[in-house]
């Protein structure tokens, strides 16, 4: 009898089935009835923007203030992972991937279009040319600055913290663990992940749809394609999605990382080209002034709802509120990706990098391109670029016609857009598969290919039917409930960080015994001596081993099973008490080295030192708190020290507040 054919999959039915029903249903509805769906969803979106815009304003403000507080607070030193964990990627690779996923095609699409649209908007027609140019830069800074990255930062930080610190799955449901506890494993958790998957899919589909149109327009401008039509868009999507799938299958360490690094270098080259060959002095001066204006206007921009300026309110809804909704709707996808690549960073390092570096680059980029376009429009083009403000697909390429080497630079721009397209799509495919599989470590390649095909088919279907605008409205609508979810992330994170900090600051009880005065002469001799490698090994093999063996015997008499572990290179010995539910108790001593100052090598008032490397026995613990030098401890003092930490351990696991910190899956590393 033939064996039954089965397809291996890591997809979770509770997530993938309702998600696909909703995604395909909305896309088909938008494609079959594009005008009706767009009108309906637009009505809902406009109601939210007009009547509930304050939810977005307050939410985004809280995100910014919360992250700034964390960055300068005592919590900033907490690492996204175990205390001894280190980053998986170099700083350059990390920033490149973060940046490519966070902004991507939008930088190319809006770098000329947005400043030009603000500059030429009828709302500001009563202002002078100079004031309109200044406003254009200020509002562009506002929409692409710290506020946008704070939205991504809250989601990314929450995910990275609970994933790497608490060893929970890389999933939005994990961010609710302090509030929902084990309920995140059931329907509530599935509902959160379904929402994240749908939001991610809609955001990527609409962005990639608009990106394809811009690529098509650029190729037409360069006379590579005869027209901008659906047939050519199908070809473009087929090629680019194939590249995205290939990149996603090759993994983060290869495809995504390499493409992101290539892209950031290409972007810098393009930036320098426009800066040097454009109105350089004007650009540097306007950027400098723009930074000052942004800083001075930061709080007034942040809280401004334009309630006293009825003529500017439609502009406010169509730009600021739309941007906040757009960034929020994209945050599950970008946040998941940022979290995936940020293991080992400290909270302070994470926030500083996510808020400041991309923001600064965005400001430089938008100043160089946007201010160059405005300068050309005033001084050379006689308003020709302003007239194209409503056609962002072609505006970038028309702008390049006022610079030398137009065709070569246009090819570079198209190449950058293509790479941005691929990096956005491949990281999106990776994130969607991660959500749908509850962060399965290894998934079959057909799943990755399947996500890519689904993206391509639905994006093309909507492009052909004119349903992208309806899907965009749907994406923006989902931002309202998700802004509330993000506020709950902050509540959850505050609770967890407080417990985390208290855990590591937990002191010993007053019943623990400090050093005694016994054997003080021998101790003095040890204090002024410097150990070599062999001496420390001898200390561990003799004194530490003897102390641990006595402890093991005594623990056994009290029906507690203690195990002694020995490791080589470098030598370390530990006593471990296993637990099924809470973390194992672990106290170890290892051979550690440190560099001695050169001047001590010739100091006559100290014993002779042979070289500037000294070794010492250092304690370490299962929860990665900082250890200390134990070379001056007698056997009994070592036993006392272990018991001090064991007594502290028992106090901690008995406190209900510490439940989520001590009941993680960290014991897997001992199995």
TrEMBL record:
<feature type="transmembrane region" description="Helical">
    <location>
        <begin position="12"/>
        <end position="33"/>
    </location>
</feature>
<keyword id="KW-1003">Cell membrane</keyword>
<keyword id="KW-0472">Membrane</keyword>
<dbReference type="GO" id="GO:0005886">
    <property type="term" value="C:plasma membrane"/>
</dbReference>
<keyword id="KW-1133">Transmembrane helix</keyword>
<dbReference type="InterPro" id="IPR000060">
    <property type="entry name" value="BCCT_transptr"/>
</dbReference>
<feature type="transmembrane region" description="Helical">
    <location>
        <begin position="321"/>
        <end position="338"/>
    </location>
</feature>
<feature type="transmembrane region" description="Helical">
    <location>
        <begin position="92"/>
        <end position="112"/>
    </location>
</feature>
<dbReference type="InterPro" id="IPR018093">
    <property type="entry name" value="BCCT_CS"/>
</dbReference>
<feature type="transmembrane region" description="Helical">
    <location>
        <begin position="476"/>
        <end position="497"/>
    </location>
</feature>
<feature type="transmembrane region" description="Helical">
    <location>
        <begin position="230"/>
        <end position="252"/>
    </location>
</feature>
<feature type="transmembrane region" description="Helical">
    <location>
        <begin position="350"/>
        <end position="369"/>
    </location>
</feature>
<feature type="transmembrane region" description="Helical">
    <location>
        <begin position="191"/>
        <end position="210"/>
    </location>
</feature>
<keyword id="KW-0812">Transmembrane</keyword>
<dbReference type="GO" id="GO:0022857">
    <property type="term" value="F:transmembrane transporter activity"/>
</dbReference>
<feature type="transmembrane region" description="Helical">
    <location>
        <begin position="448"/>
        <end position="470"/>
    </location>
</feature>
<keyword id="KW-0813">Transport</keyword>
<dbReference type="Pfam" id="PF02028">
    <property type="entry name" value="BCCT"/>
</dbReference>
<feature type="transmembrane region" description="Helical">
    <location>
        <begin position="408"/>
        <end position="436"/>
    </location>
</feature>
<comment type="similarity">
    <text>Belongs to the BCCT transporter (TC 2.A.15) family.</text>
</comment>
<protein>
    <submittedName>
        <fullName>Choline/glycine/proline betaine transport protein</fullName>
    </submittedName>
</protein>
<feature type="transmembrane region" description="Helical">
    <location>
        <begin position="264"/>
        <end position="284"/>
    </location>
</feature>
<feature type="transmembrane region" description="Helical">
    <location>
        <begin position="53"/>
        <end position="72"/>
    </location>
</feature>
<feature type="transmembrane region" description="Helical">
    <location>
        <begin position="141"/>
        <end position="164"/>
    </location>
</feature>
